[in-house]
């Protein structure tokens, strides 16, 4: 646990976050910065947070985590070492990371307004000069989690104070940052833009301290978790995994897609109000697969169900469900949703995690293999219909998995961005694309501009589905283990 970065194995649930991207100006100074963050003994004293339990389970004042782009890693350990790490790892593990988010943009749906040429231009960019077109000058990503806005400023200042100074300036300079603060609805701060309750469903990782009965009891979790256990090597890179190989530098680390996703609330609200046959709240529920308060449609297809209790990561009434065969402790409606009468095949949460629905494309009863840890949070103010255009808001954070090809890239490309999600599928547009993300600009298929759901055996079709989410920035990152970070800070790799 002391060698794994903490955010990989648990969500911190800190309210005030700063996501920062740095450029390396001086390699030696950057190595010293990394060494100081690994040890926590340098002036300023900030250190990378591990997965070890906090003393008395009390949150510290801050948590801090680090990731490197391929160009950043190559700067620090050199081209030869980078090549060795690549050659000693499965292509699925390392090649997409080396390729990078810019070169992968077309496959990930980052086209049109979401294309890399438009990234980092919508608020948050610090540097006077624009980033290079290939992204090679974006090297390190740090995420600072704090309990108060004041602590965010304090620890950010401390962090910058740890950077070595050279005759030409700081060895590492911030070029972008985005702050995240809670969105509160009816006194609850777990909401995101588009009005949905968030932080309900994360993968249940097998064989870790946080999921042991004693620890669950200490954390006040007493309800039973039906979710299948996902092997630890899906999120923490291992040299004993059955389906990939990894160089020793990667062990106890992981990979992530850093995503800055703008959400167009005006377009979304217009769409959910556009069908006279369907109330806006029902349309929003059908699009997501949950009611706004987090109640799954499979559990309660007609309304929010307050009998489930308070939605939280400690209450599994909101995650104990399947689509074909009810899970053991599933609440509410127990009928199979084989025909998508309750939750549309195209609904966002069904596409992102089809659970036991083995009729989904490339889901041979192994949906857990493709699970992604989402450590992301909202940015920007709550939407006001009277506001001026151009206000930035959305979701920012890390989408984590040990193998980008199996997890982030697979889910995005195959389940979210492509039509033909499931077979058989009786819907008139064959499920279309994920309605939250919508069709790409170049997607001319009329099926993908329709959202359809089954109502008493007849499909209600709503046309003019468009993109409600725009990618404003993306990086592929390697998040090393603490020992891996120490090797990187020395410009070395384990032999």
Would you write up a description of this structure?
α3 (70-77) crosses α4 (79-87). α7 (213-218) links the parallel β9 (204-205) and β10 (229-230). The protein contains twelve helices and 16 strands. It has helices at residues 6-9, 27-39, 70-77, 79-87, 91-103, 149-161, 213-218, 265-272, 280-288, 348-352, 408-416, 482-489; strands spanning 16-24, 62-68, 140-146, 165-166, 169-170, 172-180, 183-185, 188-191, 204-205, 229-230, 254-263, 373-379, 394-401, 451-455, 458-462, 469-479. The chain starts with 5 loop residues before the first helix and ends in a 6-residue tail after the last helix. It is globular and about 70 Å long. The chain has 495 residues and is of the alpha+beta class. 21% of the residues lie in helices and 19% in strands. The strands form six sheets. Strands 2-3-1-6 form a four-stranded antiparallel β-sheet.
- The low-pLDDT segments are none
Could you give the order of strands across the largest sheet? 2-3-1-6
Q: What proportion of the residues form beta strands (DSSP E)?
A: 15-25%
Principal-axes shape call: globular
Helix run count = 12
The ordered string of helix (H) and strand (E) elements is HEHEHHHEHEEEEEEHEEHHHEEHEEEH
The overall pLDDT average reads: 93
Radius of gyration equals 22 Å
Roughly what percent helix? 10-25%
| N-C termini distance | 23 Å
């Amino acid at each position: 646990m002391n060698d794994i970065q903490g955010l990989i194995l648990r969500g911190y649930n800190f309210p005030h976050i700063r996501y920062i991207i740095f450029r390396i100006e001086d390699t030696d100074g950057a190595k010293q910065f990394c060494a100081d963050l690994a040890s926590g003994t340098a002036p300023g004293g900030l250190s990378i947070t591990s997965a070890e339990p906090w003393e008395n389970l009390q949150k510290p004042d801050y948590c801090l985590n680090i990731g490197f782009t391929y160009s950043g890693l190559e700067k620090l350990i050199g081209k030869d070492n980078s090549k060795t790490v690549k050659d000693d790892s499965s292509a699925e593990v390392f090649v997409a990371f080396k390729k990078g988010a810019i070169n992968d943009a077309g496959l990930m749906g980052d086209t049109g307004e979401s294309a890399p040429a438009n990234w980092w231009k919508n608020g948050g960019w610090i540097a006077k000069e624009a980033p290079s077109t290939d992204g090679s000058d974006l090297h390190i990503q740090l995420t600072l989690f704090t309990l108060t806005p004041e602590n965010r400023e304090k620890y950010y200042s401390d962090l910058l104070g740890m950077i070595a100074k050279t005759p030409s300036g700081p060895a590492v300079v911030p070029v972008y940052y985005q702050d995240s603060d809670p969105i509160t609805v009816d006194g609850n701060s777990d909401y995101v833009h588009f009005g949905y309750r968030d932080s309900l469903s994360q993968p249940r990782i097998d064989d870790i301290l946080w999921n042991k009965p004693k620890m669950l009891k200490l954390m006040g979790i007493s309800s039973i978790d039906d979710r299948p256990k996902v092997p630890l090597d899906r999120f923490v890179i291992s040299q004993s995994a059955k389906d990939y190989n990894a160089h020793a530098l990667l062990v106890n680390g992981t990979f992530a897609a850093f995503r800055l996703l703008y959400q167009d609330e005006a377009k979304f609200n217009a769409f959910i109000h556009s069908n006279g046959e369907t109330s806006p709240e029902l349309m929003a529920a059908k699009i997501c697969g949950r009611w706004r308060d987090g109640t799954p449609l499979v559990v309660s297809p007609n309304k929010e169900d307050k009998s489930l209790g308070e939605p939280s990561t400690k209450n599994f009434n909101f995650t104990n469900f399947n689509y074909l065969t009810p899970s053991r402790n599933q609440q509410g409606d127990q009928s199979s949703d084989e025909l998508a009468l309750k939750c549309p095949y195209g609904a966002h949460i069904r596409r992102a995690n089809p659970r036991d629905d083995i009729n989904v494309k490339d889901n041979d009863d192994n949906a857990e293999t493709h699970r992604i840890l989402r450590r992301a949070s909202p940015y920007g103010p709550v939407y006001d219909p009277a506001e001026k255009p151009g206000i930035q808001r959305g979701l920012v954070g890390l989408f984590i998995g040990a193998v980008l090809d199996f997890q982030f890239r697979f889910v995005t490309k195959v389940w979210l961005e492509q039509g033909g999600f499931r077979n058989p599928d009786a819907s008139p547009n064959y499920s279309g694309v994920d309605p939250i993300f919508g069709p790409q600009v170049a997607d001319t298929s009329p099926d993908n501009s329709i959202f359809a759901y089954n109502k008493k055996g007849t499909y209600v079709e709503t046309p003019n589905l468009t993109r409600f989410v725009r990618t404003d920035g993306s990086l592929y990152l390697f998040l090393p283990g603490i020992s891996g970070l120490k090797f990187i800070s020395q410009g070395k790799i384990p032999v």
